[in-house]
Amino acid sequence: MNYRHHFHAGNFADVMKHVLLLQLLTRLNAKDKPYRYIDTHGGAGKYNLSLAPSQKSGEFLTGIHRLVQLSEMEKRQAPESIQEFLKLVGKIREQEGKGSYPGSPWFALQAMRDIDKATVFEMQRDVFAELRHNIHDKRMGLHERDAYEGLFGVIPPKEKRGLVMIDPPYELERKDFPQLVELLQVAHSKWPTGVFAVWYPIKDRAMIDRFEKKMFKTGIRRQLVCEICVWPDDTPVGLNGCGLLVINPPWKFSEDADQALQWLFPHLRMSENGGHAAVRWLVGE
């Protein structure tokens, strides 16, 4: 497997995913009852953008680097969700150095309450060793296991409420993500009230259209699509944009997401013409 998140940490897609993850958990916090956060591909938990992999790709320069370079006034004018995200990034940079950038498990722990629990999977042995070194919290259980097998053993969780964050290495997925569609169908049938958030790359619009048609045909209700494309669709680059498909989004999340993405788009776009940010229902109630 060639995929290593170290090369992509802190890029525009990471920023989008982490902002929306924090919003999802904030909405889950609105109810008193505990929930379970499940991360299917946890990665290393934290990344050092000053090291060779990140420096080689330079992707963070058009992602988190752009946002931390904003003036304090510009940051204060951002939506509350963006301000909270930047505050947490500032926290880890202050504690561990300006090259530090967190992964989804770290962000989740910052949003979770004492009563909430988490389960994180990571199947790559060397990356799991980093995750275990980087994340120490009694609320979070770490598992060196293939989440496509392990997920079904932990849902539905005893808390009954919760979020599953799915961000697989797409080098292993074929064209319109059939393995992912199958995973979501089975997982949703086991836990129909769970919140499922699936991050995916946008490189080929026709492929994404086929993926959405497959998801529509599953019959699963309440599917929300959140997208940000920093390049026009026909630009021949590695990654034009990314999406987050959310099944059973919490109340008011769609409004939160739209506000955040509309603010992020002009700050992260790579072309003066084209590109977009949008939140829309693929399948409603």
Automatic annotation (TrEMBL):
GO BP: any one term: rRNA base methylation
Protein EC: 2.1.1.266
Entry keyword annotation includes Phosphoprotein: no
Binding site for S-adenosyl-L-methionine: H18, H41, S104, E122, D146, A147, D167
One cellular component (GO) term of this entry: cytosol
Site features described as Interaction with substrate rRNA, chain residue numbers: Y3
Superkingdom per UniProt: Bacteria
Principal EC category: transferase
Keywords: Methyltransferase, RNA-binding, rRNA processing, S-adenosyl-L-methionine, Transferase
GO molecular function: 23S rRNA (adenine(2030)-N(6))-methyltransferase activity; RNA binding
Enzyme active site: D167
Catalysed reactions listed for this entry: adenosine(2030) in 23S rRNA + S-adenosyl-L-methionine = N(6)-methyladenosine(2030) in 23S rRNA + S-adenosyl-L-homocysteine + H(+)
Function: Specifically methylates the adenine in position 2030 of 23S rRNA.
Subunit-level organization: Monomer.
PANTHER family xref list: RIBOSOMAL RNA LARGE SUBUNIT METHYLTRANSFERASE J (PTHR37426)
Similarity field: Belongs to the RlmJ family.
Protein name (Swiss-Prot/TrEMBL): Ribosomal RNA large subunit methyltransferase J
Name of the gene: rlmJ
